[in-house]
Amino acid sequence: MSSPSFPQRPDSERTVRLRRRVLLGFWMVCVAVLMVRAVDLQVVQGADWREVAERQHRTTGEVPAARGAVLDRTGVPLALSHEAFQVSVAPHEVVDTVGTVELLTKTLELPTGELQRVFGSDRRWVPLPGRYAPHVRDVVSGTRGVYVARELRRFHPHRDLVRGVLGAVIDDAGAGGIEQAFDEQLRGVPGIEVLARDSGGRPIPGETWLVQPPRAGGQVVLTLDADLQEIAHEALQAAIETTGSRGGDLVVTDPRTGEVLAMVSVKEGTAAHLGAINTPYEPGSTLKPFTVSALLELGRASLSDSVDTGHGQWRVAGRTITDVSVLGKVDLAHALRSSSNVAMAKMAERLTPAEQYENLRDFGLGVATGIELPGEVGGLLRRPQQWSAQSPASLAMGYEVSVTPLQMAMAYGALANGGVLMEPRLVREVRDHAGRVVERFDPRSVRRVISKGVASQVSRTLVGAVEEGTGGRARLATFAVAGKSGTSRAYDEDGGYATGEYYASFVGFFPAEAPQLVVFVKLDRPQGEYYGGATAAPVTRATMEAILASHRSPLDRGALAAVARAQADPETVTPVSKRSAPAREGANSARFASLGGAARGQSATSTGETGASVDGRLSLPDVRGTSLRAAVRRLHGLGLVVEWNGPGPVRSTRPQPGASIAPGDTIRLVGAPPGRSPQRAGIDR
Questions:
Q1: How far apart are CA 150 and CA 87, in angstroms?
Q2: pTM of the predicted model over 0.70
Q3: Which of 544, 552, 551 is nearest to 508 (CA)?
Q4: Local structure of 164: helix, strand or coil
Q5: Per-residue model confidence as pLDDT tens digits over 361-417
Q6: How far apart are CA 259 and CA 395, in angstroms?
Q7: 234, 189, 262: which is closest to 519 by C-alpha?
Q8: Are 340 and 323 in contact (CB under 8 A)?
Q9: By the 8 A CB rule, do 559 and 516 touch?
Q10: Rounded distance, CA 423 to CA 417, Å?
């Protein structure tokens, strides 16, 4: 029997169809929303999201530009950008581990064991120690898993020799010296590169693209001469060691142009200082020529005017001024040569305070010189309204005024330059990255301080100070030197005078008849003998002798030869045996022979050494085995003309050592195989 069938209810079918439609509509709505969102992200916001993605996986960076070089006057590099490379390894990328280790061991000179530990590391990126020369990049570039990064470092070929003048570079910016003063010209323009990064934001090795190459900085050409700078440093360092000084300064300038040819300041065993422009001191007796210049220029006195120094003491304004030796009644020229404190103080009374102040200010004291270096100080020269009753006498002797070594060098340069004060010049020109000159610094005069005639009178008197006065140890055998020594009390930490401590100084220029160089020397607290004439003057002589012996000195040797020929006129020769012994500051001395004919035989230090005979002839010393510079300097000190073939050390001499010679004879030095044309040093016969 079949079961009965029941018809389906119509409302159930409608419910199913409704549910299906609702579900379909829901999915259609979802699909529509997704499509709208996709269109929004990919079309409307697509550019923005692509930029975000690009930023996540790409980044731009600066490519450092090579800093421009600093050169000396002859083009010798003093500071330049040194390109170095860092080598890094990505161990997981290396395919041939053994071969790569062998290559790096040979190229980088690293221990094999250290490299094996690096390649066995789980780290993704391992920088290797050290920085390497450009040839390393050429060798290892292209090796799988080895990457090279370029770095720029400031390099000083002469180490600390010119560091004080140059300054430093910190965080790619100049700090002190020329580096700071000309930072904008030296800096250069960085380039732009694009680097790929992984999901963690770390750079991907080797994925770098250079977009804009860097442009190197410009060049700065100084007036300094690297050879003269070395000469000055050696002479100053030797004097510091010999005298036990704490430090010192040595400045060499050209009085005709104001160019600074050498500037060395040594302190605490290093030359990375600028004491020549930022450490003032009281000059002492080296200031006395300016007092005499004012008296002559204003017509208040002449060099022949007499002054009574009595028994070497004079009391003024409650203070007793003392000379080292009793001079009695002397003329003004004699008083300057003998460095009489009493005479200078008495003669200064003929000047009004305003005249005395203006004279010192006209010589450039009390104001910064304007040299192209940061940190220069102007010293101290108080206005007359601030003076005491003792100030005129103190200033006449070089006290109650503080100056920098550079100021004194420039002031003496005015005496050597016919009375015209020049602006100091340390930079000759600035060049762009392609070597084209963009700025040139020409010599500039500041003012005429005194007349040419007065400058000549004072210069001749200063020759006497060297020939027979307090600066005798600065005397050269070949050329007349004009100069003045000074000794002043040193300061202690509290700003007062330190007991038993002094500054010893000497300023000279040569040849006195046609000056080409001014040499300033100051020693800080020499031990034992502390007078400037005994300690600083020999440094001046050593410096000048070495400059005469230098291959590349900026001296006009033709002009020197003309001066030497004029001095060799037999009608004006002054025998060496008739010279008086040098005196200390303040000591008495005989009147000196006229400048025009002072013929110079051997120096005081060389007479016994060479065994000079009664007729003035001497025995040629043995200089074989010594450096060329030392040999030439020694022979110049004997008044000899020197020719040489090749570099040193000296192999032989012509004539032979021990031969009888006379001042003015020519000595040939042989330091290398013949074949080169002889070079001449010093003077022509």
A1: 9
A2: yes
A3: 544
A4: helix
A5: 999 999 999 999 999 999 999 999 999 999 999 999 999 999 999 999 999 999 999
A6: 28
A7: 262
A8: yes
A9: yes
A10: 12
